[in-house]
């Protein structure tokens, strides 16, 4: 790989003299500042980027490593930093959010209005008894109200846990229960791609599953007016709750370490883990990376196409852009409705200048544009664009080139941002006015992020050789713990053999010449399907919970041209192995079962049936073999330890 990369010419950064970080020398200077005094560097930025109610006296506290603390004796309020501060700076009339609904209807809110709505909602939450430290689950579609709900929680010091609107009742119940939420904020329905989809009904189902006794109130935003069930003692309309509330709500000043949110994400084992983030350190990195990685200026129109249910929507919709007083687009719908030109039309209509999206969306829009010239980006005026960004999975060079050429007109730098739910914000990324680009590489660490590649013992691996991606020093926006499970936090991210380095869970390689990083994919049993992170164990558990049908299941990923990875499930039924139409029928039943258990994003693309699974004589499932079978590649591995080699031919048959 490294020889390949060395042959790829670097694409020089454009000569943007007014860039926040202009030229590699400026980048190197920041890196050197952080190396000389890690805690001092971050403290300087925390003073510059955030407004503190009580200033902190100390940057990093590593006395209880790996439970690191940053700026601990400082107090602040995240919502005050995002909203009141902008009004005080004279940005009250500036548009904060340009919201475009699924049907194309546009609503704009100014910073002053967003502050007023947040204040009313915060007062409404307080009136229902929500206090500092309580958890509030937000199960909402993309909406201004979704952002307001997050900001309102931050305002009163409640810890939010946003659950993506595509998760099932079961998944929602697990998260409500694990978080011990006192309230759920939801909408009657969500609208995506011209369809009305239930939200409130799923909350009802989740609570009916039991174990959610902590939930006292369900607050419902009326989005469509569609029919919904109602429990009078529990359910409240958002508009009725906020109507009589005053717009002003004194912020709750919290310590920098106060948990702003818990966001569930998949690991290689067990149930999804609640990644707990701080207030001060998190907001610092959200604001800082939004400014430097996207070179964001006051006149920019920023659009991050993520959903607020994922960390990208937290950092680069709900917090980062607002902390900078930027104007951002929030989109309710999907990229392919009413047609696959939707993104390009919206960039044109709103004069978007910084556009941040996912490789999976780009790949599907390439396919659409190849099939239908009317939705090709060249049919739209995209001249407002100046910076493009990619996130969530590796971007393949072909998609990079298309994005660069057809969307960016060959002029816009692409920032390929590597990070994770746990990291809170960008970790390895180009800075657009500084870093020369190489398609397919996330280039260099953000200044102050001590990313490195090591072997299983934590020893450095030379450039040009692959290894394990780690971060050697703590950083302000890092995960603080796994909600309610500090032991799992330690075991997952700070395994003893890695000498106190943060384990990202990805493999990576640095180019022999440039030192640029390329992420080679997860080294654990975590899959990345269309940028959505899923644990193979979670899907296996969902399959085997179909006790009427399934005896055993193993799930692996295989490469997919559009979704990056696709889920491939190998299933042994409690009855004879089905073939032909029957196999198709049962495979579909199982797909729907998984959708009901986890959510449609977890549906296996391939389901293969066997009389058994390939196991060693000691009974261990040979996943490496299954990965080869899933890929359709010839089996080159040694199968001599296999109990039942004939099973491989069976499992190769597609349904
Ligand atoms: C995993 C984290 C980052 C926010 C959205 C996903 C993969 C993410 C990149 C990238 C290659 C990437 C990694 C990582 N990933 N960005 N630019 N290049 N891989 O957050 O759901 O926590 O997933 O996504 O495998 O570990 P997440």
Layout of strands and helices, then pairs:
Elements: H1 2-7, H2 23-36, H3 38-49, E1 60-61, E2 69-70, E3 75-76, H4 78-91, E4 95-100, E5 106-110, H5 111-127, E6 135-139, H6 144-156, E7 159-162, H7 169-179, E8 183-187, E9 189-192, E10 195-198, H8 200-208, E11 217-221, E12 235-237, H9 238-243, E13 254-255, E14 261-265, E15 273-277, H10 280-293, E16 301-304, H11 311-323, E17 327-331, H12 342-350, E18 354-357, H13 359-371, E19 387-391, H14 397-407, E20 414-417, E21 451-454, E22 467-471, E23 481-482, H15 486-493, E24 502-510, E25 517-522, E26 526-529, E27 532-535, H16 536-544, E28 550-560, E29 564-573, H17 580-597, E30 606-609, H18 623-631, H19 647-652
Helix pairs in contact: 2-3, 4-5, 4-6, 4-11, 5-6, 7-8, 10-11, 13-14
Bound molecules: 5'-O-[(S)-butoxy(hydroxy)phosphoryl]adenosine (WT7).
The site of 5'-O-[(S)-butoxy(hydroxy)phosphoryl]adenosine (WT7) has 22 residues, from helix 11, strand 20, strand 24 and strand 25.
Catalytic activity: acetate + ATP + CoA = acetyl-CoA + AMP + diphosphate
Binding site for ATP: 392-394, 416-421, 506, 522, 533
Organism: Variovorax beijingensis
